[in-house]
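Sharing a chain and its predicted structure for anyone who wants a worked example. Both blocks are below, sequence first, tokens second.
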Amino acid sequence: MKKIRCAIYTRKSSEEGLGQEFNSLDAQREACEAYIASQRHEGWVLLPEVYDDGGLSGGSLKRPALQEIMKHVEDGRVDQIVVYKIDRLTRSLADFAKIVDILDAAKASFVSVTQSFNTATSMGRLTLNMLLSFAQFEREVTAERIRDKITASKRKGLWMGGTVPMGYDPDGRTLKVNEVEAETIRTLYDLYEQYGSVRAVREEAEQLGLRTRLRKFTTGNVSGGGPFDRGHIYYILTNPIFAGKIRHRKLIHEGLHDPIIDPERWEQIQVQLQDGASRWRSKVAANQKSLLCGKLFDETGDRLTPSHSKTRKGIRLRYYISHRLVTRSREDHLDAWRLPAPELENKSSELVRSMFRGHAFAMRLAPGSRAEEIGRIRSRLSDLNDTEDIESLFRLIDRINIAPGNIQINLNSPLLAEELGVSADTINHDVLTQNFPFQLRKRGVETRLVLTDSPTGIDDTLACNIARAHGWFEQLKTGKTFAEVAQADETSPRRVQQLIELAFLAPDIVRQVLEGNQPLGFTSKWCLQRSLPSDWTEQRQVLATL
């Protein structure tokens, strides 16, 4: 008779009663032990290890004892998990699916003592899914009830707990003013009305010796008691709690506690803060220059011209766009460029500095020059490389050509010779032009330029997984299940399900992978975390945004 090694898992959501001599965990374990003993004729054997999670919710898998027992299942040390009720194991249907995957991969199962079924049978799985659905429903209803209670309480102005703000002490379901700390809060508001700048308030507060609240925790740790930083001051100036109000998400309700700052005065300071932020954004936008204007060209010879847009908050976003987009829409010119200006300018400055770096460039720039002259040129190039004046650095650029996957930097020979203090005739023009490979990586509306020393290169792992996916698909076509395919390849059914989509890649995408020209973000890890569409056109569109 085959021996079935059984491990008992117990859990209790709250810590109430755990200190008793015989608690809920003991009762669960005793019932499970009796059930295992009744199945001894089936070869069931109780393992001595104890897997108890006291005071932990079943809404998450992040439980020490659960993690340990699942690890022992994966290691082949446990054949069957025994629980008192299914909701002791998990209350989430999604988490249950993860647990079943692990159990299936290890050829293990679990049994509920008070609900007669096990996962080895189809009827057991059906019953289990139904019970888990109700358990998850119960947990979600409880969470909604708690959220509704908090919302209703805050609507009435009650303090619902959390970190008590400086200037107040807890007083049941409300707050009472701490006069010593409240004086510090009033001083910060006075300073802001006087200077109109959070930075200035921080400096003055430090001069006055104002300090944050010193907080002591039951663990013995201590925090606070230091000078105010800008973020803390801004939080105090914008927190409606000091105006006698309670914030709940985006709504502000009248509180039952006394205000430290007059509500009308608080409202005026909010307007002042918003006006100050708007003026700062306008000042920053006004000082921004398109430093590469007139120097950028795309692969068609079209000039890239400065452009900008504004967000809802009034922030000015700068771009360089192909000139043909000025008069026509993007749909008419799908090959046109639209690049974020700050990103392009920063990358261009990095590339120019990289050209000036190293002794070899100085030697190639002025071949035949004496050692002292090479040393002087090298010293001047080092100064240019270290300069923080990007505008003077860009002055040395004659032209930048941008093509898919490549940026070409062309330096201005006369201006560079003037900067180095040498004759233009001594300059080797061949070294003034250099090419740098790059790739565009998009995340939503954000576009980033990723510089690479060489093409992406062949991803052996990705290529191997594509080949495995084709092999798995051929086995599935013969009628095998995911579990059977996974067992034959010594992997998990979950991994087969995650990577099988690679068998449906468009031929040109497979060719790019085999040649090492795939998009930079297209990796096996990316495939494990996301799902690719089956339509080849949609696949190309998805990968084009990486």
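Comments welcome. Residues 122-155 form the longest helix (34 residues).
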